[in-house]
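Workshop exercise sheet. Pairs work together: one partner reads the sequence aloud, the other fills in the structure field after running the prediction. Swap roles for the next sheet.
Pair: D.N. / O.F.
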Amino acid sequence: MKAKLGLAFLMAVSSLSLSGCVLNVGDHEGKRSHSYWEKQQETNRTNLSKLTIGMARDQVTVLMGTADFSEAYVTQADAESPKKEVNVLFYRTQWSKGDGKTTKDECTPVVISDNKLVGWGDTAYQKI
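Structure field:
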C-alpha cells in the first residue's frame, strides 16, 4: 500500500512539473503582468553579474535558466583556427515595448564557444 501511495505521489509531482513546461511553450507572454517581467528582468540581471568567463555551458544554464531565444552555428576550420561551436543565449533584461512580447532587443546575449562562456552583452555578440 505504501509503495502504491509513493508511486502515486511521484506521478503527481512529475505531472505538475511537466505541466509547468507546457505553460512555457507558445504565446504565453501576453498573459504575464508588468510586475512579472520586472521581477524576471531583475533576476536575469542579477544572475548575469554572477557569470564568469570560462564557465561551462551547463553552469551558465543552471544559473540563468532557459533562454528566451537562442542561436547556434559552427565556424569553418581554416589554417589559423579549428572549427568552433558557438551558441548564443538571449535573456530578457530590459523592457523596450509594452506589448507583452519578448524581443531580442529586450535581451542580453550570452555567448558560449565550444561549451565555455566567452562573454555576454552586445560587445561579445558583435565579436562572434
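Discussion prompt: Residues 13 and 125 are 39 Å apart (CA to CA). What would you look at next?
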